[in-house]
Amino acid sequence: MEELKEFFTSIIDDDLDMFFVRLIVALLLSGMIGFERELKRHSAGFRTHILVGVGACIMMLLSLYGFEDYIQKYDNIRFDPARIPSYVISGIGFLGAGTIIVNGGTIRGLTTAASIWTVAGIGLVVGAGMYDVAVLTTVLVLLSLIVLNNVEEKYLRQGSRGSYHIEVQRQENVKDLLDLLDGLQVDIDKMEIKKEEDIRIVLELSKSSTIDEATLLEEIGKLDGEISVFHKF
After folding, report:
1. Rounded to whole angstroms, how far apart are CA atoms 63 and 124?
2. In the chain, where are the structural domains located?
3. Are 198 and 212 in contact (CB under 8 A)?
4. First-to-last CA distance in the chain?
5. In this predicted structure, what is the pLDDT of residue 112?
6. How far apart are CA 39 and CA 42, in angstroms?
């Protein structure tokens, strides 16, 4: 029993409390950013951001404290503590690239990729013991993701314009579609209706239209009948 106690005493470092606190802080801060991404159903959410933040913190702790005995034993060794963190920052780009989705003219996931990269930086900062910088950065990131997102949705994305090619099979579907667009207060610059095998409707949204693509497609999908929608930027 005494030998077991000595074993655990030998592996528990005096700095264990400090390591524990830094890892927990990294978990909490990265988790807050990840939770915001999770709420918006992004591919990299709560768990991914936590793993990135805590992993980056571990790498910084390893860089700062993992080679102390080795350096003390060999006086001629010169060690650069910034080398491991630099690999973290460059390597995290591969993970961020996996969250970016390109679909035609639409690119999604850039913000989430940037948040993963930032969380890695927060983890490194926490690992270095710079708690104030880490907390401030987390607050700024959350403000950017939440507050600025609302500003962007309300003001900056109103200038987007797209052409929608909608194909319906029955005449009554045309009336339902027009009633829907009127109810959603969609501003339309141009509309063409062509009768072929199916009835084809070409819509060009106005720059002043505030409707977003996801909402428009969701509402069109609720209409009865077979309706096909093609979006061309």
Report:
1. 10
2. 15-154, 160-232
3. no
4. 73
5. 84
6. 8
The structure tokens listed for 56 are 């980056």
Concatenated DSSP letters for 26-89?
HHHHHHHHHHHHHHTT-SS-HHHHHHHHHHHHHHHHHHHHTTHHHHHH-TT----TTHHHHHHH
User: Taking the chain (233 residues) in consecutive chunks of 10 residues, what is each chunk's mean pLDDT?
Assistant: 54 73 95 89 84 94 81 72 84 74 60 90 95 96 85 58 64 73 69 66 59 70 66 52
pLDDT at residue 138 in the model: 96
How would CATH label the architecture of 160-232? 2-Layer Sandwich (3.30)
Question: What is the structure's pLDDT at 8?
Answer: 47
**204 CB-near residues (< 8 Å, 6+ apart):** 161, 162, 163, 164, 188, 189, 190, 191
